[in-house]
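Task: sequence design from structure.
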């Protein structure tokens, strides 16, 4: 049998978007590109013949427990296309220490005696937090687009993302969201049990915005930026930013406070 050529990137993207960035039957973000009419049997190598199936549904199709007709039906009305966000995907973080990379900054630490850290705190809202419960390290992460609408949400290890994006791609252990060709809005690498690598993203709460890029961390409207460094220790709060209308909370155990004045 001739070796199967790889699928062109723009074809894959067309398929992803049409399918709502998830398995057409269950919406799972961990999927593969499936030829509905089998490539080995002469099926075309183009977007119309391709769909997204998770490993479980793909296996069912291979075993003929899932008829092709049913896959075609799901392909015509993909699970995620009728929903604003993807179904929950569980992340498997555990243990009482973590390593978080924010662009060029790296935080390596053990959780405090309360077993919790609000690593990114903007106007008193935890936008990146870690909490220990029954041995599991529960990660919370909220990333937004430039207009302040949520793109990626992780609520205590339960990952969801917006399905109406220009492109969402989960490759290996990294989730990338784009608003156009080479325009990355968010990129998160997952390395359980303890590593989270945030390469790009926007945190926002009550009008205050913090941006992560390969440069590091910036609060752009107020000319605050941090570049590089390895930070170890035990902090209940990591990077805290608040404007004059907010704050007031006790941030004694913060790694760094960035009070923002108008
Ligand atoms: Zn599925």
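Answer:
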């Amino acid at each position: 049998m001739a070796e199967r050529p790889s699928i062109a990137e723009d074809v894959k993207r067309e398929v992803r978007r049409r399918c709502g960035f998830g398995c057409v039957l269950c919406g799972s973000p961990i999927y593969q590109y499936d030829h509905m009419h089998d490539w080995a049997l002469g099926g075309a190598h183009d977007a119309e013949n391709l769909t997204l199936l998770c490993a479980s549904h793909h296996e069912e199709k291979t075993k003929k427990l899932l008829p092709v007709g049913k896959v075609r039906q799901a392909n015509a009305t993909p699970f995620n296309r009728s929903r604003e966000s993807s179904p929950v995907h569980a992340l498997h973080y555990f243990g009482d220490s973590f390593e978080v990379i924010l662009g060029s900054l790296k935080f390596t630490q053990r959780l405090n005696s309360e077993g919790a850290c609000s690593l990114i705190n903007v106007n008193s809202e935890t936008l990146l937090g870690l909490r220990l419960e029954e041995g599991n390290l529960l990660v919370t992460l909220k990333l937004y687009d430039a207009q302040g609408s949520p793109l990626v949400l992780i609520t205590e290890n339960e990952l969801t993302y917006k399905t109406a994006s220009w492109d969402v791609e989960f490759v290996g252990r990294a989730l990338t969201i784009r608003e156009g060709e080479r325009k990355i809005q968010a990129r998160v690498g997952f390395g359980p049990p303890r590593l989270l690598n945030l390469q790009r993203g926007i945190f926002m709460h009550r009008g205050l915005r913090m941006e992560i890029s390969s440069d590091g961390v910036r609060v752009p409207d107020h000319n605050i930026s941090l570049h590089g460094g390895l930070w170890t220790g035990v902090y209940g709060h990591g990077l805290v930013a608040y404007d004059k209308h907010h704050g007031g909370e006790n941030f004694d155990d913060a790694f760094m406070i960035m009070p923002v004045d108008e």
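Residues 94 and 134 are 9 Å apart (CA to CA).
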